[in-house]
From TrEMBL:
Domain of life: Bacteria
Protein name per the record: S-(Hydroxymethyl)mycothiol dehydrogenase
Segment forming the signal sequence: none
SMART domains in UniProt: PKS_ER
Length: 371
């Protein structure tokens, strides 16, 4: 049993606090990971405020890089010493989605069987089955994707972000939206996920990339990631602006990275005929939208939601790390600040204020302590 520090929220809307937690040695199919970095993601905030469930206390954190320090019986995917990115889509290979050749939709993803606990034995629920605001975490081995080749120490903070938000945005464009070279893409909402969608559109070779937001600073950031045009929707009607920038037709692909009724409707209306739209912004429970059914039929094309960008980590992470190494994908640009484990609560405040793309916790190796 390993005694380490971790960031825990014990009850709904309570502050996230740094606690001593106990992490078991890995059992069959499990891996113990020394966490190097962990991004502060909106999903962690959702856990904190009770928007995901009521299984408190939660061990927060899930957007991580690390080093495998031990593996359990039967593990072949990774070995001790491997640098890895953690993911929450450890596919089972047996469910109906996996059997039909769509493992990115796996309906029975794996997590570690054993529980991490507080010192008094209280079981912790790890965020997205990972719980990596901690010096060590226990996961299913399939939640580890090996990073091939060398990276400099400071680069692990950037590649760890593929574990959730950045991958969700890139995947919404590359996988769900299936953008092609030369197509036009509009992204509504330019926070972390929207900025990643813009970076994905640039990586795919889209010719016109339109960023839409209420905030000029976010639009300026979007240009750094590859936006060719920006639209401040407090000053212009975004649907009219997108049409004007695409020859009067609308974009081939529109990404809604906000997830509220008005932006969903804007995304639908800003598509070209037979165009695609993808919802990647997470709607609040009960969010609704109303669009005449004859318009759905008449416009054709597709309306999709992106589950983690339809990502298959074993396929997508290595490719995107390679693109990062080649200088074609600016993952470093998503790292707004580097902080310690004790700074997570303050990072949530910065996230809510919209002043960061990503705060990234950098975690020093834990002194080995066992029970």
């Amino acid at each position: 049993m390993h005694e380490v520090r971790g960031v825990v929220v014990k009850a709904k809307n309570e502050p996230a606090t740094l606690e001593t937690i106990l992490v078991p040695d890995p059992g069959p199919g499990e891996a113990l990971v020394d966490v190097l970095t962990c991004g502060v993601c909106q999903t962690d905030l959702h856990y904190k405020v009770g928007a995901v469930g009521e299984d408190f206390p939660y061990l927060l954190g899930h957007e991580s890089s690390g080093i495998v320090s031990a593996v359990g019986e039967g593990v072949t995917e990774v070995a001790v010493g491997d640098h890895v990115i953690l993911n929450w889509r450890a596919v089972c290979g047996q469910c109906r989605a996996c059997r039909r050749g769509e493992p990115w939709y796996c309906f029975a993803t794996h997590n570690a069987t054993q529980k991490m606990t507080l010192e008094d034995g209280t079981e912790l629920t790890p965020a997205l089955g990972i719980g990596s605001f901690a010096e060590k975490t226990l996961v299913a081995a399939g939640q580890c994707t090996k990073i091939e080749g060398e990276l400099q120490d400071h680069q692990y903070a950037a590649v760890g972000l593929l574990g959730c938000g950045v991958m969700a945005g890139i995947g919404a464009v590359l996988n769900t939206g299936a953008v092609k070279r030369g197509e036009s893409v509009a992204v509504i909402g330019c926070g972390g996920v929207g900025a990643a969608a813009i970076a994905g559109a640039a990586l795919a070779g889209a010719s016109t990339i339109i960023a839409v937001d209420l905030d000029d600073e976010k639009l300026a950031t979007a240009k750094k990631f590859g936006a060719t045009h920006t639209v401040n929707s407090t000053e212009q009607d975004p649907v009219a602006a997108i049409r004007e920038l695409t020859g009067g037709h609308g974009a081939d692909l529109v990404i809604d990275a906000v997830g509220i009724g008005p932006t969903f409707k804007q995304a639908f209306e800003a598509r070209d005929l037979a165009g695609r739209m993808v919802l990647v912004g997470v709607p609040a429970p009960g969010t609704t939208w109303e669009i005449p059914l004859d318009e759905v039929f008449g416009r054709g094309g597709s309306i999709k939601s992106a589950w983690y960008g339809d990502t298959l980590p074993s396929r997508d992470f290595p490719m995107l790390v390679d693109q990062y190494r080649l200088g074609r994908l600016d993952l470093d640009g998503f790292v707004s600040e580097r902080i310690g484990l004790g700074d997570v609560e303050e990072a949530f405040a910065k996230m809510k204020a919209g002043t960061v793309l990503r705060s990234v916790v950098e975690i020093a190796p834990a002194p080995e302590a066992t029970r």
